[in-house]
Amino acid sequence: MPAFVCLIWFPAGTLRAQDTVRVGITYQPGVRPGLVVLPAPGLDSIQAIVARDLDFSDRFEVIALTQPSTGGGGSGTQPLNYAFYRTLGAGLAVELSPATGSFIRMRLYDLAAEKIRGEVTLPLERSGVGESRMAVHGLSDEIVRLAVGQIGSAATRMLFLNNEDKRIWRVDSDGAGLAPVSPAGVAAMSPAWSPDGGRIAYTQLSRDGGKPIVIQTLGSGTRTLLPLKATTQNITPAFSPDGRSLLFAQMSDAGVALYLVNVQDLCCVERVTGGRFAENFSPAYSPDGRRVVFVSTRAGGQQVYSMSADGTDQELLIPFDYGETGNSNAPEWSPDGTTIAFHREVRGAPQVWTYDLSGHRAKQLTSLGRNEDPSWAPDGRHLVFISDRTGRRQLFVLDTETNRTRQLMTPFSARLPAWSRRLVRSQ
């Protein structure tokens, strides 16, 4: 009896899907199996999105068909020609075909075992445009799960600051769906996602000099100000993993301290770090919510510290590398809890680094241009960051395993990216 998988797109609703028994290829880190996405008459837009998503996952060598396929299709009048696709170097094949009504069926073939590895049937808008694209990205992530048993990041979005109109914008993981999020005429900074993807937090730059923090619900557009004094300046908000609390930095004449606020009940603001004659900012929670990394200048330059979520047990985590590198900034915990991403000055220019918590090793990942503000994808292997390597600050995505980099082009300068958790998930 087949198991059932439910693909949910927040906040749109529930999709139905079916998964068959999986056999055949075992994924090995560093080895990318060849994969071909078969032609799908009438579903060309969906086929193109899926093929691009699987390429961007960096888990497959996606093989392009340069001429009409003669390999047959498993759901058509001809059986799939396994041997033909193996000659192209493929170990996997993805077939998309119309099903009953508005449903579309996806079959994943294991070409070596000559068997269907997995099957999913779900409702999809066949044009593959607008908001329906997110459900297609969810299908791509399901293919990654069926093929290699790992989480994908296609069904995600990035927030970032448009440096020209000072609004928070969003973009899909593949560079489509570019749109403003925060209101026109309201300058903003420091965007952050809630864990469920339904809300965002950001700093609003008020005309009276204050910098309140706003919680905005994406579905309705409702905006709520946190209960802070109107004239205070507050930056770098970060949601706790359960979405109930928010850490942020508050600026004063004496320094910058980290504060914690209950965003579920909009109350109970408390300070968790000292701020006298030092700056403490850019907090980020560990995946289990027990620890926090942040930046502090308490010992001179900007260094990365860690502490318990309640502010106790504060300690230097990533030491300043005197003589070799400069200030560190924008730390963020990887989804698996093993690594911290951050940027650090190297010969006067910021570069993206990672820090392995178990081995206590720092690794530089970029060197071309100025590269800063990394944010993890939910798959734990990709980072989005800002780089000026093409002459203007733009979004770039880096695969930390292969070092492959791709640009998400925007018609304006971008800053301060934040990658969401998955907005469509299997359950």
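[next item in queue]
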Amino acid sequence: MNIRGGCAGLLAAAVIMVLGAGCGGAAPGSSTPEEPDVLVAAIPTVDLASLYIAQDDGLFAQQGLHVTIKKIPSSAAIIADQLKGQVDIGAGSYVGYIAAQASGAKFRILAEASVLKPGCRELVTGSNSPITTIGDLVGKKIGVNGTNSIGTLLISALLTEHGISPSKVRFVTDQKGFPAMPGQLEAGAWDAAFLAEPYVTIAGEQYGERVLADLDQGATTDFAIDGYVATQAWVHKYPKTAAAFVRAIEEGQALANSEPGAVQAAMAKSDSLPPRVTALMSVPGFPTGPVDEERIQREAQVMLQFGVLGTEYAAQVRQGSLAASMVAPAP
């Protein structure tokens, strides 16, 4: 575990008080959620361990919530459904949400889920691939779970820092997402693939696939990866529900920080993973407390820098108004 908490109970109590106030002023147990049934669309990665811990340990139930988790291939795949009111909360990469916000959508980051650490996001090649250097990627296809996603961004940064234009590779989206990608890579669908844990470990254990590059480096070291995001309209309509959800997630984050076994158990159950995978998988940092606006601002700046966010949004990014609009309370 890369980020350790102190006593999980004390930490959880502290962040619950802070986040409860930030999402509507409700202390634990003092306010009934307006809507107890919450649908969360989530990418199946270890970054969202707190979501599965909160579900398995009854933390949502303690807050008066009944949470249904729907697994999705990428955040981009669910944003349109959130804007239509068909999904309550998205749990996944910030990249798609920042891009949508820049073009006029109104989202609110309820809580942070993960910060990049070594081994959590990797560029992987097949077991018999001739690719051994970053330079070998020129002219090759790279599988990602979503085009113009966090994978596109991290790999673009890596290529640029090795003197290679991202336009020299072809990004190809796998519509089934991370669970299918190790098998697709070994079958020759692409020359390399962007994988998140626990699928990096699965790729190595099941197929003998090899890590070409760790993506926790350079401009994206300790990068904000995933968060829990709702539309501002949903937060405005259900402030007590949002506050209850955040309190449960913060307890889950505290447990993820302090109890590696809780992360392993949650991922084993959610993805039916064997112990050899959960014991070996790398884990990210699990931030607690109010959403860090500086981390979201850095994300937007790197998106702009590497062309994942269009230059027409440069003023919003440089002024900080784009990040602020996702962190500040909904009007």
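[queue empty]
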